[in-house]
Amino acid sequence: MELRKINKNDAANQWEYTTSLPEDENGLTNPFHGVTYEEYLKKVLPLIISYEHPKDMPDWFVPETYYYLWDGDCIVGEFRIRHCLTEALRSGAGHIGYSIRKESRGKGYGTAGLKLTIQIAREIVPEDEIYLRVKKDNIASQKVMLNNGAYFAYEDEEHYFMRIRK
Q: Distance from CA of residue 43 to its chain's centroid?
């Protein structure tokens, strides 16, 4: 298993994974659901790559890097690291968002992928803890976070807000 940063060489696999994700599932939004491969190559891929070193973005935008979890020649998950937090992110989505391919769930990919992502995030994020958010009814994702050393910081009606010490 390996975690690879989004790149042009893996465009076809990344496109297939990205466009197959629902528009919104368990709080992870995907504005690129269903785009054509041509659109992905010309617009989406350069845009997502630019998120790591953003230019001309709104004030609320923070640098974000996309990574894909590979098992052999297949992408089984996507992990996003937001490099720092705004107040909205601090009390919202946090540093890391992720998804696992539906048919690959329940096989340990979430736990393994988050572990690799946390190793990278520890070098990037300036905060003392890595912030995560999970829907209360997403038990599998809660277990993934807990398996990676997360603790429950607080909750609201819909979510648990988890933290992992750096």
A: 20
67 exposure class (CB count in 10 Å sphere: 0-12, 13-18, 19+): buried
Give the three-state DSSP class for 54: coil
Q: List the domain range (segments joined by +) for residue 109.
A: 2-128
* Residue 92 counted as domain residue: yes
Model confidence band, residue 112 (pLDDT cutoffs 50, 70, 90): very high
Counted domains in the chain = 1
Note whether residue 135 is domain-resident. no
Q: Which residue has the higher pLDDT, 160 or 58?
A: 160
The alpha carbon of residue 54 and the mean position of all alpha carbons in its chain are separated, in whole angstroms, by 17
What's the pTM value of the predicted model, to 2 decimals? 0.93
Q: What is the mean pLDDT of the chain?
A: 94
CA-nearest of 40, 50, 43, 49 to 12 is 40
- Tell me 119's DSSP state: H
For 15-81, give the DSSP string. Answer: HHHHHHS-SEETTEE-TTTT--HHHIIIIIHHHHHHTTS--S--TT---EEEEEEEETTEEEEEEEE
The predicted structure's pLDDT at residue 59: 77
Torsion over CA: 103, 47, 124, 83 (sign): negative
Nearest to 133 by CA among 89, 101, 76, 75: 89
